[in-house]
């Protein structure tokens, strides 16, 4: 009897999906959307969402994936039903624009630390934004879930990424905005790409997000690498290789990558990182960069992140969404 129970138990594992497909998730519009998970080897799996029904069979180690057809923006809310040996239902999902924000402390720092926090937090419920905040969850992608924008979730969100999404939501009414944040303070670029070095944070906090459909990524990092000329000079090749690795592993083409150029701060080789960021933007037509050296102060952690997020969002409005505006900062 015990043997029979064990055999039955291993033969019919429940179908699962990552927490990226939790309640309140935002799926990327206007492109194929992969949905994936695990099940028993050979188990039929069907995903139903927004008028579509897609089926597949789990492979011999129990992995499965389907691709939803491109969908228009919709605040829904829509339910996603995943059916295998069991049934999973996710509610309140939407279709809109999804962006990843990553880097070190200036991307990590929450909105609650910003000098304009009170007004921004008060306004957080007025726009349709959703957050997948890996940063606030200690870097654990597997237990992070989507949250609707409110005073609590916005307070913990990356200030730069919040202001980026907030500006997009203001200028693109009717389009849900999904923001994924995965950043860690005091980290070198080599930790965010295996091609650049150890890649430990890339393996732990970026790769598990793939291949979730996204529009693009924003990047605010480089302070750690500017502490000496030897490390900072590596940035000329490390940043381009990071961008290439992310794009290749995501498997959805040459998506836009927006870089925050280092502002004024008292770090010895910051000018080298700043130039490496500029050269990366000049050499890749799908990399854009915001200039921040005009911002007041000389703090490694600028206390007001609104201009940073808004400048990034203006790039997206012009180059991704076709709006007519002056978006680029002055370049030498």
Can you describe this structure?
- This protein has helices at residues 2-11, 105-108, 117-122, 151-156, 159-171, 200-206, 229-250, 270-283, 306-319; strands spanning 26-28, 33-38, 44-49, 52-57, 63-68, 74-83, 87-103, 129-133, 146-148, 177-183, 216-220, 257-260, 287-290.
- The strands form 2 sheets. Strands 1, 3, 4, 6, 7, 8, 9, 10, 11, 12 and 13 form an 11-stranded mixed beta sheet that branches. A two-stranded antiparallel ribbon has the order 2-5.
- The model is unreliable at 1-10 (pLDDT under 50).
- It contains 9 helices and 13 strands.
- The chain is globular.
- It has 332 residues and is of the alpha/beta class.
Task: Please give a quick description of this structure.
The protein has 332 residues and is an alpha/beta fold. The chain is 29% helix and 25% strand. Strands 1, 3, 4, 6, 7, 8, 9, 10, 11, 12 and 13 form an eleven-stranded mixed β-sheet that branches.
- How many individual helices? 9
- Strand portion, in percent? 15-25%
Structural class, by secondary structure, is: alpha/beta
- Summed over residues and divided by their number, the pLDDT gives a mean of 95
Uncertain residue ranges: 1-10
Helix content: 25-40%
- Topology as a string of helices (H) and strands (E): HEEEEEEEHHEEHHEHEHEHEH
C-alpha termini separation: 77 Å
